[in-house]
Design the sequence.
């Protein structure tokens, strides 16, 4: 299950980066902000999973 969560975190980060870049390219601030938010969610999920790994071992 943890691997699934880690993969989901990476996916969110990648999708967020693409969205942010696309928003910046077309000048759409809303899409750019959504991309940054997705990246932040992915970062938070990844940090949570790393913390769980530390306490698990």
Sequence:
């Amino acid at each position: 299950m943890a691997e699934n969560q880690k993969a989901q975190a990476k996916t969110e980060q990648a999708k967020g980066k693409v969205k942010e870049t696309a928003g910046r390219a077309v000048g759409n601030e809303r899409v750019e902000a959504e991309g940054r938010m997705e990246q932040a969610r992915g970062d938070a999920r990844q940090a949570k999973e790393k913390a769980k790994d530390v306490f698990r071992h």
